[in-house]
Amino acid sequence: MGLRRILRHVAHTRYASRRAFPAAALAAIGRGVATGEQRHSGELRCVIEGELSWEALLAGQSARERALEVFSLERVWDTAANNGVLVYLLLADHDVEIVADRGFNGRVAPSEWQAICTAMERRFRAGEFAAGLIAGLEAVHQLAAREFPAAGGGVNELQDSPRLR
Description:
Elements (H helix, E strand, L loop, with lengths): L2 H9 L2 H7 L2 H15 L5 E7 L4 H5 L4 H11 L10 E7 L4 E6 L9 H16 L3 H19 L15 E2 L1
Parallel strand pairs: 1-2, 1-4
Antiparallel strand pairs: 2-3
Helix pairs in contact: 3-7, 6-7
């Protein structure tokens, strides 16, 4: 547990999250999820978290560990075809994690998911939060469309609008 990391999380405020992702950006992200899901049968869930709790920080919880926890809390694993994907952003760390359900196992290489995360993190470091997230979501949609093309008339199982925690 590094002191710098703790200070970043303590200093991060709700205002900082809203400044990075104002209402118009959140609406655009939600529209991007809804539009992209028309091209495939997968389900995307986007969660933006400002900072970790004191308990998580003191326990040394990583962004990946938190993303796995959020994957469960948001029930991304509970889609009919097991093809849900969580795109998780931890703002205080400028860290992006993608957690894909078991339907993607053997279909999408970990390096493909990592390339999307890396590209998004690069955009975030440049202060391009909304644009970076939208571009990352589009890349996830492309992978989902490749592996799970739209079958027509699918049910929307997960909320399209991003959750700002």
